[in-house]
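User: Could you walk me through two proteins back to back? I'd like the raw sequence and the structure tokens for each, with a short line separating them so I can tell where one ends and the next begins.

Assistant: Of course. Protein one, sequence then structure:
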Amino acid sequence: MKKIIVLASCMLLLPMAVMAGTKKADDNKAAVAACAGKVAGDAVQIAGKKGAMVDATCQDVKGQLVAVVNAPAAK
């Protein structure tokens, strides 16, 4: 009985995990695309979590140039 419950739980959670991974992959593609033709340290803007454009900086991450969102300014 426990095996059935565990199996059913996995079957329900698997699609959610796949969708979450797809969203992250899309975000990563956008971060890489934003730095196409740029060099490390260049300023760019990318879409944030709520769709608004946010400031980012191109950085070398594991040998690939990606846009990394800037930390909020200290007040």
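----
Protein two, same layout:
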Amino acid sequence: MEQHLTVGRVAELGGVSVRTLHHYDEIGLARPSARTAAGYRAYSAADVERVREVLAYRRLGFGLREIAALVDDPAADAVAHLHRLRGLLLEQRDRAAAVVAAIDRELEARAMGIDTPPEEQLKVFRAQLYESIGSA
């Protein structure tokens, strides 16, 4: 017989509240496949995998409707989701690294007494904002 995890344990492992998992169940985003004799939600390994996908997309800033479309995509399996998530995280890392580099350049310039023109101060953030909106 397959082992199931309680909603409390899944919430603890996922770093979310039990209420969050209850909400995901209510809207059909991540439903547990079983119930205990007492009627509590019980998550199988496949259920936990889906919760992981939902939480990963959520932490990347996707809305619940967008997440539903992504995780319900019949052409995407768990490996495809992992590849997609990896790519999104790498893009996010690269965007953050570019902003950090720009801030470092400005800090260095200020330490040398050089004022950065306002246009230059905002340039990197404008580009990052539009890239971020486009990828979401």
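The longest strand covers residues 41-43.

Let me know if you want the two compared in more detail.
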